[in-house]
Amino acid sequence: MKTKILSLFLLAGLALSACTPAATPTEHAEETTGHAVHWTYEGEEGPEHWGDLAPDYATCGTGTSQSPIDLTGAAEQDFTNISFHYQPSEVKILNNGHTVQVNYDAGSYIEVDGQRYEVAQFHYHAPSEHAVDGKLYAAELHIVHKNAAEQLAVVGLLIEEGAENAAFTELLANLPAEESPETDAGFKIDATAFLPEVQTTFRYSGSLTTPPCSEGVSWFVMTSPIQLSADQIAAFEHVHEGNNRPVQPLNTRTLSEDTTP
Ligand SMILES: [Zn+2]
């Protein structure tokens, strides 16, 4: 019994040290307030326990505007499409233990609802976090943006298996397999090339999908999925698989869908 308890402590210690490199940005880097309590996608530190792991994570358990959600029953509306102003960026890439993230050079932005949001970073989840009519996709890319008031807007790209996608080739060949600090991969990438042709979106107000699950995040999930080949999806999964938070209740929120390209 004693040995068991001791080894539990040792395991806990290892787990903590694996997640405490001081300067490692969290998935949503702009939310960083010092790398905090360890969390996972399953078991004792999994999504259903996030809210109890640390006071800072309480919103994960008590929040009523959480993400992701099932995108279903949306109210159709005629929105002005997002205006994308992405530039190529150096690929400053890291594996934070939860996803692989590319920190994006300053100067790229979207305009939506009269607001300008600068691209901060993009990263992925496999399978997708958002569902459509109850169905998850193979993966989901999140392009995280921030406005001058530090409010977040995330563009979500649902990924389905299909044709090989050249926009991802170089990135997928350079995914850091192990947890690692930011390194310059030595090439550029333009997130414009990730976007689907039809740029209508599901829109709702949600949260970060990882602790601390902060709310007030404007979500724009593209209605049209993009395609990657089975091999390309496998390359994402090889590094991180199962890094999707389960869907959360919509509660009193409105989910809208822009139906006019
Ligand atoms: Zn994400």
Please tag this protein with its features.
Carbonic Anhydrase II, 13-stranded mixed β-sheet, single chain, 5 helices, 261 residues, disordered N terminus, alpha+beta, globular, binds zinc ion
Q: Into which percentage range does the β-strand content fall?
A: 25-35%
Instruction: Please state the overall shape, judged from the principal axes of the Cα atoms.
Output: globular
The total count of helices amounts to 5
Tell me the number of structural domains: 1
Arithmetic mean pLDDT:
89
Q: Would you tell me which CATH topology applies? A: Carbonic Anhydrase II
The ordered H/E elements are HHHEEEEEEEEEEEHEEEEHE
How many β-strand runs? 16
Instruction: State the separation between the terminal residues, measured CA to CA.
Output: 64 Å
Using the coordinates above, name the CATH class: Alpha Beta
